[in-house]
Every structure is written in C-alpha cells, then in structure tokens.
Amino acid sequence: MDDCIFCKIARGEIPSNKVYEDDQCVAFYDLNPMAKVHVLIIPKAHIANVLDISTENSAVISHIFEVIAKIAKDLGLEDGFRVVSNCNEYAGQSVFHLHFHILGGQKLSLTMC
Ligand code: 5GP
Ligand code: ZN
Is 63 noted as a catalytic residue in this protein? Predict the structure, then answer.
C-alpha cells in the first residue's frame, strides 16, 4: 500500500510520536487529539477497516487488544478509557487503514452519535 499514510507510519517513512511498537503493530499519538490522551494503534499489515477482518488476518486483532491493555496501564488510564474504530463513510472513517482510537485521560461524554 504505497500511498497509505498509516502504512508509511508503520514503515517509519512518516514520523510519529510512538508509544509502542512490535513486529505486528504500532501505537502513536493522534495528530489532532480528541481527548487529553488520544492514541491510535494499527496493525503493520494493511487492513482497510473492520469489514476486512477475516479468519486469515484476525490474529493481530487479539494481539492489538492485549497491547491496548498494556498501553492503558502504562499511560495510567485505569480509571477508564474508550476504544473506537470508525468504519466507512457513515462513521466518518478518514484513514482507510484499520486503526483503534484509545481515548482517555479525562471523563468522557457518553454521546454515541
Ligand atoms: P478516523 O477518522 O479514520 O477514524 O481517524 C483517523 C485519525 O488519524 C484522525 O483522528 C486523525 O487525526 C489521525 N491522523 C491522520 N493523519 C495522521 C498522521 O499523519 N499522524 C497522526 N499521528 N495521526 C493522523
Ligand atoms: Zn495501510
């Protein structure tokens, strides 16, 4: 995926403020934070969004959620945080490389839409 911005971040071709990285995934601070703590975590392999998760590529998803638990503890988010993945137009997905928003560091509104 030559023109995918998150593939470029995963390959280190675009700088990002990383909080975690391993062979399968990378987590970094969002450029335009929507909460006091706003981290994105992505698989290194290109998956467009939740609709593209399948038996063949889903192992990285459970790994990502293990890493989310680690990041939440490392960043002191045990009081509460939210994990969000926007999928396609109606949800406002703007980058078509699967990512999970980790939002916390403050009391979050319960608004869903
Ligand atoms: P979406 O709207 O697709 O759910 O979320 C995409 C997120 O990626 C947005 O919150 C946006 O601020 C963030 N983002 C877009 N481009 C970059 C970038 O180059 N670097 C970082 N760190 N975040 C980005
Ligand atoms: Zn990509």
Answer: no
The DSSP bridge pattern shows strands 37-43 and 81-84 to be unpaired
- Taking CA atoms only, the protein residue closest to ligand 1 atom 21 is 31
Kindly report, residue by residue over 64-105, the tens digit of the pLDDT. 999 999 999 999 999 999 999 999 999 999 999 999 999 999
- pTM (two decimals): 0.97
How far apart, in whole angstroms, are the C-alpha atoms of residue 51 and residue 38? 23
Which candidate, 65, 112, 109, 58, places its Cα nearest to that of 90?
Answer: 112
- How far is the C-alpha of 13 from the C-alpha of 15, rounded, in Å? 7
User: What is the per-residue pLDDT across 2-58, written as a single tens digit (0 to 9) for each?
Assistant: 899 999 999 999 999 999 999 999 999 999 999 999 999 999 999 999 999 999 999
